[in-house]
Amino acid sequence: MMTFNDTEEMEYPSLKQAYEKAGIPLIKLGYDQQMTDFGQAKTQLETFNEMVQLNRM
């Protein structure tokens, strides 16, 4: 989700609810157009991947 993007921020709660109802894992990442370091996003994605893999077992 792009920082300070009102449209995305307004849609997120309904998307989250729909994904949860369907049993689909969801992750919310924040970013902005001037980001140069994606280390934190990478760590969040790796953790999310591990959680999804554990839930499949």
From TrEMBL:
Cofactor dependency: [4Fe-4S] cluster
Family matches, as InterPro entries: FldB/FldC_alpha/beta (IPR010327)
Name of the featured protein: (R)-2-hydroxyglutaryl-CoA dehydratase subunit beta
Name of the coding gene: hgdB_5
Catalytic class of the enzyme: lyase
Keywords: Iron, Iron-sulfur, Lyase, Metal-binding
Protein source organism: Peptoniphilus harei
Lineage of source species: Bacteria, Bacillati, Bacillota, Tissierellia, Tissierellales
EC number annotated for this UniProt entry: 4.2.1.-
Matching Pfam families: HGD-D (PF06050)
Top-level taxon of the source organism: Bacteria
Family assignment from sequence similarity: Belongs to the FldB/FldC dehydratase alpha/beta subunit family.
GO molecular function: hydro-lyase activity; iron-sulfur cluster binding; metal ion binding
Gene3D superfamilies on file: 3.40.50.11900
